[in-house]
């Protein structure tokens, strides 16, 4: 999954119970009735409602509300070449100016240079956090550990750390969207093949994925926020305030985030 998928609206193959999707429709219907003079995009709404519903449930509920006639939708091209699917209440007759404002901000934070900077920054934040707690970096962009090598695919792990004789394969995803599910599964299998513990440092994972990861001996380091470089604090504030998205620009990873992992590590010894 590329960083640009943060802006895409897509219908997943995952199916939830009809009552679950019906509840999402009710929540979104009430939301749009109260915000009938604004324009939103699909992934923005999925993320803002992720405490209640998986992203793909929100996507399907939006599609249902368009078919129902409550919402209008339109695709707008982005500077990166992909498209943004916009949604607004049918009462919002003069939506074009609001839509252009949303697209302009998405183009700003979704530029290739910004996406690359955010991705690299996420890795540096995780690297610094582990280093402060005396984890030793054994490899970066790795697909081998000891005498074992992963050859099933061309995937790499972002980091391999060690402490107290335990090795961890750490994958960092500093994105708004969930990481790709196939990649998630592959990275777990990689770690199992290499004989190391899988760790995912991500803004968010579906709860069902987290449960599976725990059952397979791994750890989900949920950051909750997409982390921007400190130099882009103003942009982070605008994305958070204007789009309601969970972004921040801290100077370092919160001590509590890495301390929880250290405590989990200690209990495993």
Describe the fold and architecture.
With 269 residues, this protein is α/β, with parallel strands linked by helices. The chain has two domains: 3-109, Winged helix-like DNA-binding domain superfamily/Winged helix DNA-binding domain (Arc Repressor Mutant, subunit A); 112-268, Trna Endonuclease, Chain: A, domain 1, CATH 3.40.1350. The protein contains nine helices and twelve strands. The protein has helices spanning 18-34, 42-48, 55-68, 96-109, 112-132, 181-194, 207-215, 233-243, 255-268, and strands spanning 39-41, 71-77, 83-89, 136-142, 144-145, 148-149, 157-163, 166-173, 197-202, 219-222, 226-227, 247-248. Strand 5 and strand 6 form a beta hairpin. The model has no long low-confidence stretch (mean pLDDT 94).
What attributes characterize this protein structure?
single chain; about 270 residues; Arc Repressor Mutant, subunit A; Trna Endonuclease, Chain: A, domain 1; 2 domains; five-stranded mixed sheet; three-stranded antiparallel sheet; 9 helices; elongated
What is the gist of this entry?
With 269 residues, this protein is an alpha/beta fold. It is built from nine helices and twelve strands.
Q: Which sequence of strands runs across the widest sheet?
A: 4-7-8-9-10
Counted beta strands: 12
Question: What is the overall number of helices?
Answer: 9
What is the helix content?
40-55%
First-last Cα distance: 35 Å
Which structural class should the secondary elements be placed in? alpha/beta
Overall tally of domains? 2
Strand content: 15-25%
What best-fitting shape do the alpha-carbon axes yield?
elongated
CATH fold call of the largest domain: Trna Endonuclease, Chain: A, domain 1
Low-confidence region ranges: none
CATH class of the largest domain reads Alpha Beta
Q: What letter string, H or E per element, gives the SSE order?
A: HEHHEEHHEEEEEHEHEEHEH
How would a crystallographer describe the biggest sheet? Answer: 5 strands, mixed
